[in-house]
Amino acid sequence: MTEVSFARSFLTTLDSRPIKISADHVEDPKTYPARGAYTLPKMPSPMSRPRSSQPGEDGSTSSSTRPAPGSERSYTVQLISARNPPLDITLSAQSVNTSVLDLKTAVVDKTGLELDKIKLLYNKKPVADSKILKEILGAEAVETVTKVEFGIMIMGGAAALAAAEAAKNAAAAGGDVAQGPSGGEVLETAEFWEDLRGFLLQRVRDEKAASDLADTFQAAWKAKR
């Protein structure tokens, strides 16, 4: 017997058997057995609502104070110098992508110091200008900390700050300020290219890439001379 013949005879046998439930069968709900309503038991004690906690001394907060998903967390950055000169600068609403160079630039705006005379320390260790808060704090601290503290080291100490304040006061008073090189003479100075490196580093946030770009610009300028 071939497989086709066997299948045909098997189906014929099934067709000869009575169908117990039709394809359009519907059960009558009235025939269901009666059952009593089930009531869930009460809780032994009511559940308390989560309370929002205030930031602790270390700046940590509970999960109820965390920002909503999709919103960017901001930090309060405190820059302190316990040595001479004493400084205490607070920067609010700083994002996780704020770089060390951004913080140093803010110090320059508030004090008038030169950028290359400012060094920032985190946990008493120097941090590179290209580092951002997210990298410095780490994945765990980024979600819990709201206040970040850096140390400031001023190269030249109080003398550098005094010179910066004197220059700022002279500019505000409209006094005669010594004029430096201008025009093409500026491109001959090393300070110009160092400033360019700092600007590129702030934008690309990569020390090697910023240095390569600055070298490319300088080489192109020298080739056109």
Automatic annotation (TrEMBL):
InterPro entries: Get5_C (IPR049256), Get5_N (IPR024737), Ubiquitin-like_domsf (IPR029071). Residues 176-223 form the Get5 C-terminal domain. Residues 25-74 are annotated as: Disordered. Pfam families: Get5_C, Get5_N. Residues 41-53 have a biased composition (Low complexity). Residues 6-157 form the Get5 N-terminal domain. It comes from the Eukaryota. This is Cell-cycle control medial ring component-domain-containing protein.
